[in-house]
């Protein structure tokens, strides 16, 4: 009986499993009964803390989770992992995903986040798995870039504003092209920003919630930020991975915007986080950048947390406003964009960061 059950199990491969979304998606798929294979890169030190709890023998279904070495820029490794695991669903979450870093690493970003998609699609064809496999591509609201219209939906024109977005544009079209050319079941999820306590520490929300926790516990004095007037449509990563799965369960492949339909400034997010941590804020900045942003600088006052504007965090080209229209995902996939409010998300992140600053081994609980 056990082997019959195992034979019926669906099998998925997640690239980028060590990242924020990868860990939530692995949990979701294990919970749904899948065998889950994840791709990890070689690193000189331990690089999968977000998966530690899943790999612990006490985690329900941990025996169905397997990690393999491979890399999106190594075509041979992709063929090997596909041949060895024979998944029915592939979720391509692997990427150099930081927008500002992509200006410093443009070619690597193009290779990993752009050509990597083509490598994966070609590896699927090379292993002869294209008829039996469904592919999810982690596309992004960064494709919209310079604002042409809001809210942004599946028909809004793209205008990428960074090497990262340019690379993701290539991946987006590779998916569409292989769908049309080879009839591969492949979907683009155009996901707007999504965050969680597992968010990488140099993305703005996590940088802010970690700073709030560290300042509260007197481990840090000041928070330095760039453009606090940028507006983002922020949701919870746990809610967004559900939508990735839903896309691959439909009769026909398609592309979907995944967003909350609400937008908020970075400045407001900082206020929410510091309020949750019980810290009053005072904004400071260099002359020029402060004036430009309408932030009033003043001398130090006791009892206030200083948030400083540092030009080093400004990008050569900025995406000023993202606001998605998730109507199609709601209508076709039955996905609920309002599962977690921004306030709930922010509170969860601040509370988790305070707990982790108090006890670093607490990471596993979040
Ligand atoms: P993370 O940065 O947290 O994770 C990225 C993952 O990609 C990590 O596992 C990383 O491995 C892996 N990776 C990097 N380079 C390669 C490579 N050459 N080969 C294989 N794997 C690689 O990103 P998120 O989880 O936040 O995002 C997941 C995906 O969704 C990304 O593609 C991102 O661009 C996209 N996206 C994210 C959004 C968001 O708001 N979070 C919104 C829209 C799209 P390692 O741990 O070793 O670095
Ligand atoms: P983003 O996320 O670029 O939207 O890409 P990020 O959190 O890095 O920036 C959001 C906005 O905040 C402004 N900002 C700062 N950003 C960072 N990282 N650090 C700062 O100190 C800072 N100060 C202000 C930025 O200028 C920007 O306007 C994320 C990534 O997850 C991508 O992979 C994904 O595709 C998009 O979201 C959708």
TrEMBL record:
Alphabetical keyword list: Lyase
Pfam families: GDP_Man_Dehyd
Name of this protein: GDP-mannose 4,6-dehydratase
CDD domains in UniProt: GDP_MD_SDR_e (cd05260)
Major enzyme class: lyase
Co-factor requirement: NADP(+)
Originating species: Elliptochloris bilobata
InterPro entries with a match to the protein in the record: GDP_Man_deHydtase, NAD(P)-bd_dom, NAD(P)-bd_dom_sf
GO annotation, biological process: 'de novo' GDP-L-fucose biosynthetic process
Recorded family membership: Belongs to the NAD(P)-dependent epimerase/dehydratase family. GDP-mannose 4,6-dehydratase subfamily.
E.C. number: 4.2.1.47
Superkingdom in the source lineage: Eukaryota
Sample GO molecular function, one term: GDP-mannose 4,6-dehydratase activity
SUPFAM superfamilies associated with the record: NAD(P)-binding Rossmann-fold domains
């Amino acid at each position: 009986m056990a082997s019959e059950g195992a034979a019926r199990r669906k099998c998925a491969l997640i690239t980028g499993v060590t990242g924020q979304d990868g860990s939530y998606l692995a949990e979701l798929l294990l919970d749904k009964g899948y065998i889950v294979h994840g791709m990890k890169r070689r690193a000189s030190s331990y690089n999968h803390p977000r998966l530690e709890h899943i790999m612990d023998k006490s985690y329900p279904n941990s025996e169905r989770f397997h990690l393999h070495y491979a890399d999106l820029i190594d075509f041979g490794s992709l063929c090997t992992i596909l041949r060895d695991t024979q998944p029915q669903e592939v979720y391509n979450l692997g990427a150099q995903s930081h927008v500002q870093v992509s200006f410093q690493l443009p070619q690597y970003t193009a290779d990993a986040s752009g050509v990597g998609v083509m490598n994966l699609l070609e590896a699927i064809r090379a292993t002869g798995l294209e008829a039996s496999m469904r592919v999810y591509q982690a596309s992004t609201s960064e494709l919209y870039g310079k604002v042409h219209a809001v809210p942004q939906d599946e028909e809004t024109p793209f205008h990428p504003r960074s090497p990262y977005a340019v690379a993701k544009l290539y991946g987006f079209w590779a998916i569409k092209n292989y769908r049309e050319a080879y009839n591969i079941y492949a979907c683009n999820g155009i996901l707007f920003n999504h965050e969680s306590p597992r968010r990488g520490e140099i993305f703005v929300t996590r940088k802010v919630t970690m700073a709030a926790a560290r300042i509260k516990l007197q481990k840090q004095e000041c928070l330095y930020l760039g453009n606090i007037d940028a507006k983002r449509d922020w949701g919870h990563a746990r809610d967004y991975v559900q939508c990735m799965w839903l896309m691959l369960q439909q009769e026909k492949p398609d592309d979907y915007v995944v967003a909350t339909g609400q937008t908020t400034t970075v400045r407001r997010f900082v206020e929410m986080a510091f309020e949750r941590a019980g810290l009053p804020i005072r904004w400071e900045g260099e002359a020029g950048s402060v004036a430009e942003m309408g932030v009033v600088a003043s001398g130090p006052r006791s009892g206030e947390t200083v948030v400083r504007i540092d030009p080093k965090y400004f990008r050569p080209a900025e995406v000023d406003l993202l606001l998605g229209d998730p109507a199609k995902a709601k209508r076709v996939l039955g996905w609920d964009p309002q599962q977690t409010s921004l306030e709930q998300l922010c509170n969860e992140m601040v509370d988790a960061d305070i707990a982790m600053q108090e006890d670093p081994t607490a990471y596993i609980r979040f």
